Amino acid sequence: MRAEISQLQEAVVSHAVVDQAIGVVVTLGGLRPDEGFQVLREVSQHTNVKLRQVSEQIVDWVHSERLSDEIRAALDKALATVRST
């Protein structure tokens, strides 16, 4: 039972971070929320970094103004792809 509760708590935190990152991407790119999620998913897949970790880095980027070159390049590419469709 404790393991299930722990997993649920982790899922809630993970979901919140992803939602925050979607908000950043939506604002940055002038996108709809579904497009923001698509961008995050593409960044995750192209960098081989888990979606939650990509989301954490993007949310932290807002405050620190630092983002890894790999994530930044993948983010720029994904934004350009979504904007062109």
Automatic annotation (TrEMBL):
The species is Streptomyces pilosus
**Pfam families associated with the record:** ANTAR
Enumerate the InterPro entries for this protein.
Answer: ANTAR, ANTAR_transcrpt_antiterm_reg, CheY-like_superfamily, WH-like_DNA-bd_sf
Its name, as the record gives it, is: ANTAR domain-containing protein
Occurrences of domain ANTAR (ranges): 1-59
Coiled coil spans: none
- What GO molecular-function term can you cite, just one? RNA binding
**PROSITE patterns (UniProt xref):** ANTAR
